[in-house]
Amino acid sequence: MHVVVVIPAYNEGEQLQVTLTELCSTPYTLVLVDDGSTDQTGEIVRHYPVHYVRHPVNLGQGAALETGTRYAVHLKADAVIHFDADGQHPVDEIPALLDPILRGEADVVLGSRFFGSQGIAAVPPSKRILLRAARLVSALFTGVWLTDTHNGFRALSRKAALSISLRESGFAHATEILEEIRRHGLRYCEIPVTIRYTEYSRRKGQKLRNSLNILFDLILHKVSHGVN
Which domain holds residue 118? Predict the structure, then answer.
């Protein structure tokens, strides 16, 4: 199976070397989408065997994932992994994400940090509450009930990668993925994954306002699509 790991990155230079070094120990093809970074991302990537795609301006994580997934399809990927650049996702858990696809049991495999008490305890309390609220709102909007709606660690079969098309560039892309799953009748499942809340990720991406933005983007997404 040809597996392509898509890594959206925006100003992740401080952590990127560690993430790419870990990923380069795997047999997977790597595609890094530089979403208009203004740091040393481009220089760092030059030293690694990865496909490098750059947006000239910052478009958002949803747009970066769409670009990376389309590129993976072009590379004739049999499966696509979405993997954050900030070091939160353990490389050694990728095979578990791929397993349901390999066994023909799912088209999309979604990682969940809310399977088991250990995973739940690792999530900062304020973020935990808002992610639970986002899960409820997302389920009401899409009809797809998950334990963890906004987890960026996921696997797509080639069929799913060809079917799912993202127009949302912000946090709402996670809800749009669920809408696409339902619209195309794709089979999906959740599996437990570990999210590593490092000092870097807490400082850069785990602020309360970012969790609130998830809810805001969900509501905005629903309103805009309702109007259209």
Answer: 3-227
